[in-house]
Each structure stands twice: as C-alpha cells, then as structure tokens.
Amino acid sequence: MGRRYYCDFCDKAFADNPASKKNHFNGAYHQQMRKAHYDAFRDPASILAAETAKKPCRRFQQTGFCDYGDGCRFSHMTDEKRRELEEQCRQSQQQKRHQTSSSAAVSDQPSSVVLGDVDEWLAKRAKRQESADAGGRKGGRRTLLPRYCLPAHLAAASPDLPPSLLPPTKDDFVGLPLLEWG
C-alpha cells in the first residue's frame, strides 16, 4: 500500500501524490472546511464587519438554505446571530477598557517586585561588562570571549582528557586577529 496523506481540515486520507493533493485542495468541501476552521479563530468584531459588508443572500432569507453554504458570497447572517456578535463585541471592548484602566492604575504605583527585577538585571549587566572589559579590548572595541564549561561527566575526568577536549583558556585567544563575519 502506498503512502497516504491525511487532511486535518477534512478528516480524510487519500493517496499522497501531487495530482490527488491538487484535486483535494481545490475541492469545494476542503475549501469549506478550511474556511470553517480558520473562522473559528476570528474575533467577533472581524466576523461582524465582514458579514455586514456583504449583501444578504435572498435564497437563504426565503428558504433558510443556500446551495453555496459558507462559500456563498452573500451574507447568511440572521438577526439573532448579528445581535449575539454585537453583544460579544461590546463585552470584549468593555474587557479591554477594564484591562487598560487597571493596568494604568497599577503603573501609577511603583512595584517593589518590578524595581527589584530591574536592579538585579542592572547588577548582572554591570558584572558582564566588567568581565568583558577584563577580557580585553582591541582598537577601542570590546571583544567578548566565549565561555566554555565541561559537562559534569567530563569534568570529573578532566585530568585524563586529551588537550583537544579541554576548554580553551583566555590566553589561547590573545593575539588572534579580530575577524568580522558577514
């Protein structure tokens, strides 16, 4: 049996060859299922905006059914569904306003946790800069030396390691030309 391709959108498997894939991907069912999948992740405001920009589908309004389904270029939005989306939009806007107002209130009061993190970061940064300065400068430019450490299982056997496996020292980098890549 040959290789099979499984389409997650359609929940179908078929022969894994270019012709079968092309036929499947261009098929109406795949297009409909793919659109339904991605529409599930759209926010209510974008759905409402897209649907209100379309004209209503006459066939859907008269019979409640349309041959094109979700692929129809006209809107199948009912008044009830429109009200639901508008309500969801209002709720999400209220949540955003509440979050921005609460975050503004929090930012007015300095937090010791945030200040502690910044102070800690600045101290680490100063140490890194000092170690880089101690590493040496060439022509006014700082050269950062790589840091090497042995894994724990090799560190125990370090006296017995060949020189090619030992980490280089700072002296090994002295006198090497500074090359810029790219």
Question: What does this molecule look like?
Answer:
It is elongated and about 85 Å long. It has 182 residues and is mostly helical. It is built from 7 helices and 4 strands. The mean pLDDT is 80. 52% of the residues lie in helices and 7% in strands. Helix 3 crosses helix 5 (79-108). The strands form 2 sheets. It has a two-stranded antiparallel sheet. Strands 3-4 form a two-stranded antiparallel sheet.
Mean pLDDT reading: 80
Uncertain regions spanning at least 5 consecutive residues: none
Q: What's the alpha carbon Rg, rounded to whole Å?
A: 32 Å
Distance from first to last alpha carbon:
49 Å
Q: What portion of residues belong to β-strands?
A: 5-15%
Count of beta strands: 4
Number of helices: 7
What characterizes the major β-sheet? Answer: 2 strands, antiparallel
Q: In one word, what is the shape?
A: elongated
The chain-level structural class is mainly alpha
Q: Give me the strand/helix succession.
A: EEHHHHHHEEH
What strand order characterises the main sheet? 1-2
Gist?
By secondary structure, the protein is mostly helical. It is built from seven helices and four strands; from the N terminus they run E-E-H-H-H-H-H-H-E-E-H.
Fold topology:
Layout: E1 4-7, E2 12-15, H1 18-26, H2 28-39, H3 44-53, H4 58-63, H5 79-108, H6 112-135, E3 137-138, E4 141-142, H7 152-155
Antiparallel strand pairs: 1-2, 3-4
Characteristics:
182 residues; mainly alpha; two-stranded antiparallel ribbon; 7 helices
